[in-house]
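Illustration 12: Probable butyrate kinase.
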Amino acid sequence: MKILVINPGGTSTKIAVFDGEKKIFKKSIKHTAEDLKEFKTVFDEYEYRKKLILDSINEGNISVDSLNCVVGRGGLMKPIEGGVYRVNKRMLEDLKNAINGEHASNLGAILAKNIADDINVPSFVVDPVSVDEFQDISRITGLSDIEKASWLHSLNHKAVCRKIAEKMGGRYEDFNFIAAHLGSGISVVVHNKGRMIDGSGGRSDGPFSPERSGGLLVYPLIKLCYSGKYTCKEMVAKVSTIGGMYDYLGTKDIMKIEEMIEKGHRKAKLVMDAFIYQIAKEISMYGASLYGEIDKIILTGGIANSKMVTGGVQKRVEYLAPVEIAPGEMEMEALALGAMRALKGEEVVKEYL
Ligand SMILES: Nc1ncnc2c1ncn2[C@@H]1O[C@H](COP(=O)(O)OP(=O)(O)O)[C@@H](O)[C@H]1O
Ligand SMILES: CCCC(=O)OP(=O)(O)O
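Figure caption equivalent — predicted structure in token form:
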């Protein structure tokens, strides 16, 4: 059973082909700002990315006709529960209109459907960014105009938690976890017996990340927005792609920042210490969501490779629960496994309504 997996990101399109559970091909196709400059919206990029994907698998000597299904990372659609979804017209319409904002993952569904339709096989998305399992109290913000929405790295969160639950001899639904996905973007999530009942991330709250500001002080933010210094588009960029570490230190690369610290760069040390402190505070805060009944604290994502970060966070939060480090991400595997469960009839495929 051959499955093509597509994971579109802001600066890359990661693709893989799985034969059963075995990964037989993988590639990360890079896109420079220059490459993407001509496209007005994220959705407009799909023909360009589709061609690159097809060329790549062709170069990898994999025939498109041999694929049994295509699965993509799902983006910002309506709030939905976790699971495997068939890509349908309504989903594509919502993603095209960016009903919940622009994000590269909005391309996953259209790329999967387009390639799959050409060869008459099914297309799916799995645990999209817009999975929303929040409890009602998690949505109240303090201002009735603003409701907190779930905007998390759901796919990796659920995949990593499932794997750790298995290692612990149970199922995801048996445990309580607080997990932090530490990548270019960060999300910290409360997993209560298999449901993500609260969490921070996206472009709104939580710790700052290599490229995002995280939660900001409300009053100074209002003043900055109305200062006349920045347009709305520039403000959105400041909080989502050129904020955080990049704004303070001019790089989004944690390895470079570690080198700077080793060479005695004082500002880099201060920003790194604050980064660790904010992640640890966020994790501790969510201890209250679980009344302190936490089976594991999990650190995952590319930055979980950094001993400086994981060690620093661990020191501050291990009073709450044991800390497990799961570096990197399992998104490609999680997409393939979801599609496989669907093809084998082991999981009911959901319809996006
Ligand atoms: N071995 C490593 N040590 C420290 N930081 C790392 C390591 N590998 C990746 N990172 C950092 O992880 C971040 C990217 O996160 P990642 O989850 O790989 O990607 P993305 O979120 O962009 O998909 C970057 O800041 C990068 O410097
Ligand atoms: C917060 C979930 C979606 C997201 O921001 O993903 P990236 O960090 O991959 O951009």
